[in-house]
Write a structure and sequence with these properties.
Low-confidence stretches: 276-296, 304-318
Structural class: mainly alpha
Number of strands: 0
Strand content: under 5%
Order of helices and strands: HHHHHHHHHHH
Shape: globular
Distance between the termini: 126 Å
Largest sheet: none
Mean pLDDT: 74
């Protein structure tokens, strides 16, 4: 079996595991939004730890795929996560996938498929140097911090930050994998240890950011994560690892077209009624789940209870006479 085919097969299984974990995370996030809980409360949830285990299994498969295929090939295959997650999430929610969700998912996949056509390259052998890895990590932390600031549309911004963090983690993972399996040097040198710590930090950060993003639904945030992840990883692969796109200038134009189609698919997903319903109306900064105070009645005299009301029948009120009565003498 060729290295490229093995990388594709590992990526397919990894995408299925990521999809199942994403659906589980979204359902937990929706429940947390209803009860007003915070992300740290998930540490006591067995279902959340199960989703973490699925993410870890998917990540290990992804690491194995990166050993046999370049970033520009493996990362776009993560789009298959969206194919599996959207219908699976709808199935568990007891509804059908809406036409807009199918359309947005399809456009996103077509765009990422076009990007995949431009991917090429043999089994990876280049790695990031330690200064390059630290520089990439610093820039990524700044971007993630900017996207995670309080403001409007937190779901999509957190999803973008999660995609960037996960994409950079994949690029750094490839460096760790290639460097650790290189028999010309020590297995645990400074480069491997430091980059491995950065991978762990970005992987955990991406997981928590995606958990926050899924409060606004599944389709649109997952599409943004799926789009931002390969963009970040491919940028590192092309700029620092010597990976190239097929077709020269034409390949770059084709890749840009695919990115625009995928971005439009994400926009379509954000317009889905299910996404809008999951996001809910704009709320104030009151804690979720707080009781709504009842309307205070207008002040007035307190009626005095009638002691005879329990045993005497009620007498209907009589209308006032239209003209005053005159008494004859």
């Amino acid at each position: 079996m060729s290295a490229t085919l093995l990388a594709v097969l590992l990526s397919l299984v990894s995408a299925a595991a990521y999809a199942t974990a994403a659906v589980a995370q979204q359902r937990l996030a929706a429940r947390m939004a209803e009860t007003g809980g915070r992300v740290v409360r998930l540490l006591g949830s067995g279902a959340w730890w199960a989703s973490v285990g699925l993410n870890a299994s998917a990540a290990l498969l992804h690491v194995a795929a990166l050993k046999f295929g370049p970033l520009t090939l493996v990362q776009p295959l993560g789009a298959l996560t969206l194919v599996a997650a959207v219908p699976l999430g709808a199935r568990l929610a007891g509804r059908r996938v809406s036409p807009l969700e199918w359309r947005g998912t399809g456009l996103t996949l077509i765009g990422l498929g076009v990007l995949l056509l431009t991917a090429s390259g043999p089994e990876p052998d280049d790695t990031l140097s330690l200064p390059e890895a630290v520089a990439v990590a610093g820039v990524t932390m700044a971007v993630v911090g900017l996207l995670s600031r309080p403001g409007t549309r937190p779901g999509l911004r957190h999803a973008t930050a999660s995609g960037f963090a996960s994409g950079v983690a994949s690029a750094l993972t490839q460096t760790v994998t290639v460097a650790a399996t290189d028999r010309s040097g020590p297995v645990l040198d400074a480069q491997v240890v430091v980059v491995a710590l950065l991978v762990a930090a970005f992987a955990v950060g991406g997981l928590l950011l995606s958990q926050t993003a899924y409060r606004g639904g599944l389709g649109a945030p997952l599409a943004v994560v799926t789009l931002a992840n390969p963009v970040a990883a491919a940028a590192i692969g092309i700029a620092l690892l010597g990976e190239r796109l097929r077709g020269g200038a034409g390949g770059v134009l084709l890749a840009a077209t695919g990115a625009l189609i995928a971005a439009y698919g994400v926009v379509v997903l954000t317009r889905s009624p299910q996404t809008a319903a999951a996001r809910g109306p704009e709320r104030t900064h009151e804690p979720a789940g707080a009781p709504v105070p009842a309307a205070t009645p207008a002040p007035g005299p307190v009626p005095t209870p009638d002691a005879t009301a329990d045993y005497l029948p009620s007498i209907p009120l009589q209308p006032e006479p239209v003209t005053p009565l005159r008494i004859r003498t």
